[in-house]
Design a protein that fits this description.
This protein folds into two domains: 57 residues, no CATH class; 122 residues, PCu(A)C copper chaperone (Immunoglobulin-like), CATH 2.60.40.1890. It has one helix and 17 strands. The strands form two sheets. Strands 1, 6, 7, 8, 9, 10, 11, 12, 13, 14, 15, 16 and 17 form a 13-stranded mixed β-sheet that branches. Strands 2, 3, 4 and 5 form a four-stranded antiparallel β-sheet that branches. By secondary structure, it is mostly beta strands.
Length: 213
């Protein structure tokens, strides 16, 4: 789905220079980097601290923080980005992510100041019903290809909004790749009545299992 005006785009380097880069960090202040191997709450959560990115992953059935990866600017490009308007609960961000390089790139985490926990989601059919769930392994974008994030398909899920997404709001979102590289963009708040699949998390957060996007 294309919007009348393109989404704003920012490079990681520009955000670091402006001091705005850490706005996408998840629940950790600068200087409060998580400990590699320490327990985390949700797979896919990405935290940036002291120029390193830490990603919550599942290891041996447990959720733990991975080792810090050096922050760098990802070559990924994000266009036509928008976020579903919501006053509370869940929301989601959509758009087109393009990999202009000659190698595949895997997105493993996402973050936004609008939600303390975010996941990369897919929509699947379970018992005849469409449900959304975490995309295991993240989103891999082949070389010289694009991935469309859209309602009813792959999307970036805001698990629990910390503030409302209003129409026209420019929502900052940061994507983190498997190498620690990041790209930050802004997604315009848009009223949308669809995309109401139930969350199908294997280990849902309290009061989350019955919530809809």
């Amino acid at each position: 789905m294309h919007l009348a005006r393109p989404a704003l785009m920012f490079t990681t380097a520009a955000l670091i220079a402006s001091g705005a880069f850490l706005a996408g960090a998840q629940a950790h202040e600068e200087g409060k980097a998580p400990k590699a191997g320490g327990v985390c709450e949700m797979s896919g959560t990405a935290v940036t601290s002291h120029s390193s990115t830490f990603i919550c992953t599942t290891v041996g059935g447990k959720l733990v923080w991975g080792k810090g990866l050096p922050v760098s600017a990802s070559p990924l490009k994000v266009t036509d980005a928008w976020t579903k308007v919501a006053s509370s609960g869940m929301s989601a961000t959509f758009g087109v992510v393009t990999n202009p390089t000659t190698k595949p790139i895997t997105i493993v985490g996402a973050s936004s100041p609008y939600a303390p926990m975010d996941q990369l989601h897919e929509v699947v059919t379970v018992n005849g019903a469409s449900v959304m769930q975490q995309k295991q392994g993240g989103f891999t974008i082949p070389a010289k290809s694009s991935l469309t994030l859209q309602p009813g398909g792959n999307h970036i899920m805001f698990m629990s909004l910390s503030k409302p997404v209003t129409a026209g709001a420019m929502v900052p979102v940061t994507l983190t790749t498997s190498t620690g590289a990041q790209v930050t963009f802004k997604a315009v708040g848009k009223v949308f009545s669809g995309g109401n699949e139930t969350y199908n998390g294997a280990t849902p957060m309290p009061s989350m299992s019955s919530m809809k996007m």
